[in-house]
């Protein structure tokens, strides 16, 4: 077949997409992309015109029309409820001077109202707004459909990319500029899917990805778009980091190898991040134990140990933040990241939990001894410490003598003490963890302070640490982690405040992550 024949067949297949049905078989998709290779750049102009036609048809389709109408009604209801809650004094709009959140730049389906609220007030609004259930279900269904259903736009755009990646990227940039502030999340999603495998994207396009990753409206309502942007920025930032940074330990050498082999999939990066967070937490743990050695006579040893631990923490900070998007997408990812910055992961956290368990066993043993002194039956102590769990109460009581309701031997008592220790440790864990978090925060902030470091390190070591430029960033992350963990486990905190504290920590982490990525890309 001649090139013209291939071109005619490609035209026929792309014209078939005008029915907006992307459900082609695997063989048909492979044949379509093979035709794009055969035709090459000679058919690019026609394919651009066809893509624009498909885009216009898709945006006028009934699904998009009714979806936009549904979303518009939903946001109008939200705005109405916001005015009611504001009038009642339950939420307060941010003043214009305090509103640092810019107008959403990238989502045509999220209308912008003049009022903006803090994260906590947004949580209150979503929780207390009286919106009809059929409307919320319709909105969720529309959003879910756009997350899982492919569009014909991705197929047509992939054909263009195969024909000429450079010209396709130029067309995409022109399209994004022309639709600045009115971009469709579906189109952004398809663009990110098509170009995600490219290794030569321009800095200008990565700038658009930064906008999408930082857009809170997209993150809240169209998270698949921010997920695609995060992955793209992560890959490019790691490649820049690979060229700029030197290898200082095994974890960084492993990451260098992953970048060289282009093995940057979600599963691979998540495994690396999990191992690194454990090592990072243990590093923080060792760093904090140096506080006990501040009066050590061997000043040279303390100086070298502090420098090595500081150097290790600083070298891990940027790669951890670049890959942190993998963890933030997990249900408990924010908590794991916050705990890591305070050293409460890995062996350090296991050691702390073991100390809590031993403390609980001591408290229970003293309770039994005090009951023996005051004449209180062990049965009453067991009933109190099992917190109404009948099965556990019966198991513990099986170790008692049926007649006297006392222990027959010390081994029986020790078995019950060990068994009840789990219950009491679970009961006291939130309060003890809060105390531990506060103690670690104070120690970390004191040891990361420049005055403390300058009193121990020599001038050359201090200069190298300051040149790294991340001590203040680490201090900021430690403070954000402490604030989040305090609100997460405080018994008097409402559900809205707990969710808001997690969202604030995620936002803080994402902001610092984007700053690191911009530093790497620039």
Describe what this molecule looks like in 3D.
With 522 residues, this protein is mainly α. The protein folds into 3 domains: 1-98 and 114-163, no CATH class; 236-342 and 444-478 and 493-521, no CATH class; 349-429, no CATH class. The chain is 75% helix and 0% strand. The protein is built from 25 helices and no strands. It has helices at residues 3-16, 26-39, 44-59, 62-88, 119-128, 133-148, 152-163, 165-178, 185-195, 203-214, 216-221, 223-244, 250-260, 266-289, 299-322, 324-328, 333-341, 346-374, 378-385, 390-397, 410-448, 450-456, 459-468, 471-489, 495-521. α10 (203-214) crosses α12 (223-244). The longest helix is centred in the C-terminal third of the chain and has 39 residues, at 410-448.
């Amino acid at each position: 077949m001649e090139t013209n024949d291939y071109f005619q067949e490609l035209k026929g297949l792309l014209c078939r997409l005008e029915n907006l049905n992307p459900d082609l078989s695997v063989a048909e998709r492979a044949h379509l992309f093979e035709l794009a290779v055969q035709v090459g750049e000679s058919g690019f102009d026609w394919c651009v015109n066809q893509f624009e036609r498909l885009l216009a048809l898709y945006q006028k389709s009934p699904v998009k029309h009714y979806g936009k109408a549904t979303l518009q009604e939903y946001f109008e209801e939200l705005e109405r409820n916001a005015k009611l809650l504001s009038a009642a004094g339950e939420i307060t709009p941010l003043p214009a001077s305090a509103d640092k959140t810019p107008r959403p730049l990238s989502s045509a389906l999220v209308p912008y109202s003049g009022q903006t609220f803090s994260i906590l007030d947004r949580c209150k609004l979503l929780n207390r707004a009286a919106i009809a259930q059929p409307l919320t279900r319709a909105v969720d269904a529309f959003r879910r459909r756009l997350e899982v259903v492919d569009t014909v736009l991705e197929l047509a755009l992939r054909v263009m990319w195969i024909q000429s990646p450079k010209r396709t990227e130029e067309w995409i940039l022109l399209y994004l500029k022309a639709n600045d502030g009115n971009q469709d999340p579906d189109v952004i999603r398809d663009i990110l899917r098509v170009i995600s495998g490219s290794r030569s994207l321009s800095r200008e396009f990565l700038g658009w990805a930064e906008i999408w990753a930082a857009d809170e409206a997209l993150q809240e309502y169209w998270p698949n778009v921010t997920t695609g942007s995060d992955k793209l920025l992560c890959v490019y930032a790691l490649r820049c980091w690979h060229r700029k940074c030197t290898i200082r330990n095994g974890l960084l050498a492993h990451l260098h190898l992953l970048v060289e082999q282009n093995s940057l999939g979600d599963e691979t990066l998540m495994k690396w991040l999990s191992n690194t967070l454990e090592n990072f937490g243990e590093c923080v743990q060792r760093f904090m134990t140096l506080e006990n050695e501040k009066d050590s006579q061997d000043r040279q040893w303390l100086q070298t140990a502090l420098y090595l631990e500081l150097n290790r923490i600083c070298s891990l900070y940027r790669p951890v933040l670049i890959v942190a998007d993998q963890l933030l997408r997990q249900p408990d990812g924010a908590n794991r990241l916050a705990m890591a910055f305070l050293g409460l992961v890995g062996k350090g956290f296991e050691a702390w939990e073991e100390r809590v368990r031993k403390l609980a066993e001591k408290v229970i043993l003293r309770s039994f001894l005090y009951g023996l002194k005051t004449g209180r039956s062990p049965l009453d102590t067991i009933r109190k410490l099992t917190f109404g769990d009948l099965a556990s109460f019966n198991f513990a009581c099986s170790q008692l003598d049926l007649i006297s309701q006392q222990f027959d031997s010390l081994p029986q008592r020790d078995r019950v003490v060990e068994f009840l220790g789990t219950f009491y440790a679970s009961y006291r864990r939130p309060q003890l963890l809060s105390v531990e978090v506060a103690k670690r925060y104070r120690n970390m902030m004191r040891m990361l302070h420049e005055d403390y470091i300058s009193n121990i390190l020599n001038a050359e070591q201090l200069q190298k640490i300051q040149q790294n430029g991340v001590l203040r960033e680490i201090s900021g992350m430690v403070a954000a982690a402490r604030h989040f963990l305090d609100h997460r486990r405080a018994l008097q905190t409402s559900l809205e405040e707990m969710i808001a504290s997690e969202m604030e920590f995620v936002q803080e982490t994402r902001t610092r992550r984007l700053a690191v990525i911009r530093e790497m890309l620039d």
